[in-house]
Each structure stands twice: as C-alpha cells, then as structure tokens.
Amino acid sequence: MNKTKLDLTGLKCPLPALKTRKALKPLRAGDQLEVHCTDPLSVIDIPNLIRETGDRVEITERSEQRIVFLIEKTDGAI
C-alpha cells in the first residue's frame, strides 16, 4: 500500500476533481491518495467523482482554511 499526497490548495472548480481523477489512474488497489483542497465546492465534486470511480473516500479534515480527503483505490468490484 502506497500513500500519495496531492496538494490542490488554491485551485478552483473543476480543477481539483480533474487533477484528483488523473492522480487516481496509476494507483493500485489498496493505495491511498490524500488530497488537500481549499475550494469549498470540492466537498461536492470529489465525493461525486469517487462515486463514479467506485473507490472509497472520507473527509479527514474540514475547516475554513482547507479540506482534506483520504481516498482509497479499490479493485472496482462492488
């Protein structure tokens, strides 16, 4: 299991979701992606993206300054 950090602070919609999608592609099942965002819309966009990909996501930090997502890549089986 690898853990990758992705700093998307300062980027506005739709860039955080697009860059998260791109960062997920090379990951293998069990790998984790920690995404740091400042765009308030990312709390909607990134979970919607993860519903499409079938991976797992949780918000580990949410404040006025930033939002941190922890995404775990799955094997795609539901």
Q: Would you write up a description of this structure?
A:
- The structure is a single chain.
- The chain is α+β, with helices and mostly antiparallel strands.
- The chain has one domain (3-65): 2-Layer Sandwich (Translation Initiation Factor IF3), CATH 3.30.110.40.
- The chain is built from 2 helices and 4 strands; from the N terminus they run βαβαββ.
- The protein has helices at residues 15-24, 42-53, and strands at 3-8, 32-37, 56-62, 67-72.
- The protein has a 4-stranded mixed β-sheet, covered by helices on one side.
- The longest helix is centred in the middle third of the chain and has 12 residues, at 42-53.
- The mean pLDDT is 95.
How would you briefly describe this protein structure?
The protein has 78 residues and is of the alpha+beta class. The protein contains two helices and four strands; from the N terminus they run E-H-E-H-E-E. The chain has a single domain, classed as Translation Initiation Factor IF3 (2-Layer Sandwich).
